[in-house]
Amino acid sequence: MTAADWQSELRSRGYRLTPQRQLVLDAVRELGHGTPDDIAGAVQAKSPSVNLSTVYRTLDLLEEVGLVTHTHLGHGAPTYHPADESDHVHLVCTACGDIIAVPEAAVEQLVGSLRDLNGFEVDVTHMAMHGRCAGCAGSTDEQEHQ
Amino acid sequence: MTAADWQSELRSRGYRLTPQRQLVLDAVRELGHGTPDDIAGAVQAKSPSVNLSTVYRTLDLLEEVGLVTHTHLGHGAPTYHPADESDHVHLVCTACGDIIAVPEAAVEQLVGSLRDLNGFEVDVTHMAMHGRCAGCAGSTDEQEHQ
DNA sequence: TTTTGTGCAAAGAGTTTGCAGGTTG
DNA sequence: CAACCTGCAAACTCTTTGCACAAAA
After folding, report:
1. Which CATH number fits domain B87-144: 3.90.79.10, 3.40.50.1980, 3.30.450.200, 3.30.1490.190?
2. Top-level class of domain B3-84
3. Chain A residues interacting with chain B (CB cutoff of 8 angstroms)
């Protein structure tokens, strides 16, 4: 999506174009993924006066408009990323904390069977799946990265 | 697991048996599932002086010992339940907030394919899957239950 | 110039922690 | 009686909100 595109997208919904909103969108695209705090940091590196609460409000707005989305990796802050980024599922290892991205194709059987059985349309990108990675599956030392 | 069983289980790990711990375990079993706050409420109905922080500490301990587990249904407080309860996956509808429990068997293909492809051992019960239920899949009114 | 957006400060949910005193084994 | 556990209060993380002022259209 070009700059002109999302700017008119915003305006067509009655939202205004502000430097803060441009900075937040830029930061999300620059970082690829990040927590509200990460994003605020990136924004403030360019414009220190931008407030954290503005970042929260702006992320909500950008999400509503469809420019960004977020994923819950665990109990902490969510991760925001550009909405057009190729969809993938996050696997979080509860032992070592590693985050593995697998293509959505790997879980399409799951999506299909839940749709067939329950009519439920799963969004597998919204919440990570937890478990133990190949390296940790055998060992027993938990580190509680949940 | 009988009362004597888990009591010796605790002791064999060097933990002590206290009335608070018995009350918390009882409450989890009685409720079937509940947030730390729910559980504290149930405990305090019987023994008002038990502190919330004790409930948190006790839930951690009971989880470490393997008597309870928890599931993240969304961005709020986690849900604790007895560890021996039959495993199921939670589907949370982002439109109406409904929570649907499906047997783990419905997702065993997923578990198998991730194990084969990545060696990753998924625990599908630890985090809910989000999406839209049969009733809401067509409509567009979000209620943001995340 | 009207409406929307922003910064700031305060409050809110959920959870953790330090510590002094109480309890278990 | 020694190690462990609890209650209490304070602190902490993440997020939301009310309000007066500033900026966009």
Report:
1. 3.30.1490.190
2. mainly alpha
3. 72, 74-75, 78, 91, 93-94, 100, 102, 106-107, 109-110, 113-114, 117-124, 126-134, 137, 146
